[in-house]
Amino acid sequence: MLPKINKKKPNSLIASNFSDKTIGQENDENFKVSFQYLDTTQKYGSGFKDWQECGLLSKMMETLHGYSHKALTKQFDGDKFALYRGFPKDDETMFNYPSTVPQDAHWARIHITGRAVIIGHIVGNTFYVVFLDKTHKFWLTEKDKERFKKNH
């Protein structure tokens, strides 16, 4: 007898490899980083050269090195490493949702120094860096929301 074939397809790579259940599961695999989805085209996003020129690139690498010794899911603290689970609404961000990132992505932020953060999404123990945000415009503060209101 042939095995039954499951014809239901997952929504995306994210849906098939990351769920709410994975956050609490024990996994000894260490934190990994990927720049596969890095978007340097947006107004408030930066690239490696920009971060190097202002001294943030080495700080980012030191921060990522610090996280590389444990499983990603064991390191969320809500302060330095926060899981958003959603892209901010239009009036809460100066960024646009990149077309290369699946719509059901689990968004997260790693604080680097000062206002500088790296924004990405996670799948299992991999943090996919999407934005290098040196001025913290991905998720606006209340003060910044008034200053940088988007024109709709």
What is the secondary structure topology, with strand pairs?
Blueprint: H1 13-17, H2 20-24, E1 32-34, H3 48-53, H4 56-67, E2 81-83, E3 107-113, E4 116-123, E5 126-133, H5 142-147
Parallel strand pairs: 1-5
Antiparallel strand pairs: 2-3, 3-4, 4-5
Which structural traits does this protein have?
152 residues, alpha+beta, 5 helices, disordered N terminus, 5-stranded mixed beta sheet, 5 strands
Question: What features would you describe in this structure?
Answer:
By secondary structure, the protein is of the alpha+beta class. The chain is 22% helix and 19% strand. The protein has helices at 13-17, 20-24, 48-53, 56-67, 142-147; strands at residues 32-34, 81-83, 107-113, 116-123, 126-133. A hairpin with a 2-residue loop joins strand 3 (107-113) and strand 4 (116-123). Residues 1-25 have low confidence and may be disordered.
Question: Overall 3D geometry?
Answer: globular
What is the distance, rounded to the nearest whole angstrom, between the alpha carbons of the first and last residues? 59 Å
Strand order of the main beta sheet, please? 1-5-4-3-2
**Rounded Rg:** 17 Å
Query: Structural class, from secondary structure content?
Result: alpha+beta
Query: Uncertain segments of ≥5 residues (pLDDT<50)?
Result: 1-25
Helix and strand sequence: HHEHHEEEEH
Strand content: 15-25%
Mean pLDDT score, rounded? 83
Q: Number of helical runs?
A: 5
The helical percent reads 10-25%
The major pleated sheet works out as:
5 strands, mixed
Number of strand segments: 5
